[in-house]
Amino acid sequence: MTELEKAYHDCYLTIAHHSKTFAKAFSILPAPKRNAVWAVYSFCREVDDIVDEGENPKQQLMEFESLFTQFLNGSLQTDSSQWIALQDVFKNYEMDETAFWDMITGQKMDLIKNRYQTMEELEQYCYHVASSVGLMLLPILAPHTHEQLRTGGIALGIAMQITNVLRDVGEDLQRNRVYLPQEILDQYGVTIETLKEQKVTSGFVEVWEHLAKRAEQLFEVALDSIHAYPADARIPVKGAATMYRAILGKIRRNQYQVFNKRNYVTSEEKRVILSKMKFDTNSNKLHKV
């Protein structure tokens, strides 16, 4: 195994451990694109881990930004698999540096902000932590059409992150984070105190469904442009969107238990989703699971 092959393999191990949904969806890409996706994910994972698990995240994030600056200007000296793989990605694809910085900005938001007042604020956060990742991946997935796919890519990232918010209400509360917008909580008479009681009230269901409907709308916007992806990327993108949207259905079937229950799509359900994709790669409809 060459140094570059090992670097990409290490990046794959990172995504396989942390995000089985993305690993499954993008595993069917051609090898060069697949490896590039693993490398970008590894970069994003390191930033995310610094914020969520770092002993001194503010300082560590500053150090990471310095490393990325050195990487971009070609002065970084390292034997890290992540940077070796990412260097190869930047050499072979028209990468968007701004998207990488936007993602870092989004992670910084978690260091200073743990409440959101409006849906607009939440969607801005979702753009920075999730849509930015989509914009990183577009030049890899669609080298010749990535500019026309920006709107759909941004919509998909926001939809996925809203889904994360709806799935992780309980986990976020344990970290003293509430991403459900205060204006939506107020609209349905839900308070932070009632959320901490971990009860699925009728008001909570209305809040949850309000955000879920927005996510589902954005999933549809994202898939409107599926035809503009190269054939080899349509199944992975549509598969990832469908797998993520399926989390919403799983939560509904579990009676909105998001306080002390982890809702996820099983490996068999993911296999079925990807199997359906292969027979319908041009449709912009999401299969329900």
Automatic annotation (TrEMBL):
GO molecular function: geranylgeranyl diphosphate synthase activity; squalene synthase [NAD(P)H] activity
Domain of life: Bacteria
InterPro entries: Isoprenoid_synthase_dom_sf, Squ/phyt_synthse, Trans_IPPS_bact-type, Trans_IPPS_HH
One Gene Ontology term from the biological process aspect of the record: terpenoid biosynthetic process
Signal peptide: none
Alphabetical list of PANTHER family matching this protein: BIFUNCTIONAL LYCOPENE CYCLASE/PHYTOENE SYNTHASE
Name by which UniProt lists this protein: Phytoene synthase
Taxonomic classification: Bacteria, Bacillati, Bacillota, Bacilli, Bacillales
